[in-house]
Task: inverse folding
């Protein structure tokens, strides 16, 4: 249902406070865009929000994000109440982090994207899954999976040689190849380029 002018103003004021990184006019534009996207969504949500398909199509067309695994993970991060639907609050507050988040906020977002099983660690298997989606097609005589495994090992050795992941090696007593958020955070703070080390999950500056 169309929102009253007063209702829209209250919503915009509230979201401007909670989203932090957008001003009122930007929030108002995002709410209007939300209404447009809801019109494309399945009727099962009764105008309350839009589904995974609309979300993925929007991020693909607006930001060029194409990796299906990443898009699904970002959807899950936006969908905080896990109801399969992005509501207006989740939409604006999620975009605030995705587009204008602090380094801390973006580190948490990227780590959560890479932590595919949600156990609080990024395992070698999860690194493999993320990297294999962004690796270029290999020559016919080389196994693509072997190339990804090599890439994971090279990345970890490079991080260790630059002292970025020393905490990871100290804490990984059973050598199961898991990175905690603390390890990831220390590495990224030392070298910001490692924020998306295991695959692109943020829009570029443009």
Result:
């Amino acid at each position: 249902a169309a929102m009253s002018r007063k209702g829209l103003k209250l919503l915009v004021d509230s979201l401007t406070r909670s989203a932090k990184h957008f001003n009122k006019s930007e929030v108002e534009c995002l709410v209007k865009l939300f209404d447009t996207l809801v019109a494309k969504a399945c009727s099962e949500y009764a105008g309350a929000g839009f589904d995974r398909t609309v979300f993925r199509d929007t991020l693909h067309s607006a930001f060029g994000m194409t990796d299906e695994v990443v898009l699904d993970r970002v959807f899950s991060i936006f969908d905080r109440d896990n109801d399969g639907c992005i509501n207006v609050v989740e939409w604006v507050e999620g975009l605030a982090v995705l587009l204008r988040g602090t380094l801390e906020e973006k580190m948490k977002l990227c780590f959560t994207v890479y932590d595919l099983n949600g156990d609080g660690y990024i395992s070698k298997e999860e690194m493999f899954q993320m990297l294999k989606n962004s690796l270029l097609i290999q020559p016919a005589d080389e196994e693509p999976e072997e190339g990804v495994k090599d890439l994971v090992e090279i990345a970890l050795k490079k991080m260790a040689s630059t002292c970025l992941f020393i905490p990871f090696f100290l804490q990984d007593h059973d050598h199961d190849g898991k990175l905690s958020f603390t390890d990831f955070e220390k590495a990224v703070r030392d070298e910001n380029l490692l924020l998306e080390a295991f695959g692109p999950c943020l829009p570029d500056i443009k």
Remarks:
- The first strand starts at residue 121 and ends at 122.
